[in-house]
Description:
It contains seven helices and 24 strands. Helix content is 21%, strand content 35%. It has three domains: 32-160, FAD/NAD(P)-binding domain (3-Layer(bba) Sandwich); 164-227, FAD/NAD(P)-binding domain (3-Layer(bba) Sandwich), CATH 3.50.50; 246-312, Enolase-like, domain 1 (2-Layer Sandwich). The mean pLDDT is 96. It is an alpha/beta fold and 317 residues long. Bound molecules: flavin-adenine dinucleotide (FAD). The site of flavin-adenine dinucleotide has 22 residues, from helix 2, helix 5 and strand 20.
Amino acid sequence: MAEVETGGHTVRDSNGGSFRYNKLLLATGGTPRRLTIPGGDLEGLSYYRTLQDYQKLRAATAAGKSAVVIGGGFIGSEMAAALCMNGLAVTMIFPEEWVVSRVFPESLGRALVDYYRSKGIVVLAKDVPISIEESSNGHIVHTRAGQHVHGDLVVVGIGITPNTSLAKAAGLKTGNGIVVDDFLRTSHPDVYAAGDVAFFPEQVLGPRRIEHWDNAVSQGKHAGRNMAGLNKPFTEMPYFFSDLFEFGYEAVGEVDSRLETFTDWQEPNKTGVIYYLDGARVRGAMMCNVWGKVDAARELIRNVQPMRVQDLRNAIR
Ligand SMILES: Cc1cc2nc3c(=O)[nH]c(=O)nc-3n(C[C@H](O)[C@H](O)[C@H](O)COP(=O)(O)OP(=O)(O)OC[C@H]3O[C@@H](n4cnc5c(N)ncnc54)[C@H](O)[C@@H]3O)c2cc1C
């Protein structure tokens, strides 16, 4: 889609086609951030996002090859585990001290770094790439700490930028995403936004943008219903999930490692629940290898009664 004209209720595509609408949904997602270092634009680096990116990487993946994964967030940590499980020799490079550091509290994050190392992954934490050059068989990534790491494959996962330009050009309110109200309506009443691109007033936790699958699905459905006349606020609290080797988790609410946490392990750093607290309130919960408890966690987060930390032991099992 190349242009939205809200006044005339028309969208135009890049082939010159023109389409009228009564209601319009913008679900334009995000674009991977790119490395702004010498070599960051080299052909052959994978800024992993789309089906085509997957197909290309899948075709290039073979046991015995080497891979460098740049970034230690959701994408980097999943990608490193997946490539390792496919028999590649993986090196991870990221500036934080442990993987998924925005979410995992320190003790779990450090334990997972040890876990990754035990699987054979070389983890270069607290380091960043400063340049990348092509080699006869792949690329060499040079790091600030003086490492020179060869990868037959190099995958970069350093976050996304929401695709707001279409909305911005149409005069819609944007900021950290396309700004929507409780009904997922943008600043124009006939235009809605949902998914990774939508900055929405989350009912319990406050305004935010969420880059997760369940949010995209539930907001997409809800926006569609409102566009068809339901006209109800979006009140769902989306969850997210990830799988890192045998460590799988589901999380809901504000799982921010800067919050105080209380951890109720059945088996340390493997099975249990991490509660993210703001004073006497639970703001988020992460169920590690504990399944089917997302609704119970939502209930705790919605509960406005003050909770004592000792009440949280066994609160979710
Ligand atoms: C590798 C990877 C692993 C992930 N793993 C997990 C996970 O384990 N758990 C989880 O909860 N989430 C995960 N996610 C996140 C999840 O996939 C996203 O939150 C979800 O795809 C967002 O959906 P969306 O429809 O909002 O955006 P997208 O899926 O990004 O779709 C946006 C679409 O809009 C199109 N578009 C953009 N601009 C225009 C335009 N101007 N005109 C027309 N079309 C346009 C794009 O081409 C794209 O097709 C992962 C994402 C990636 C990339």
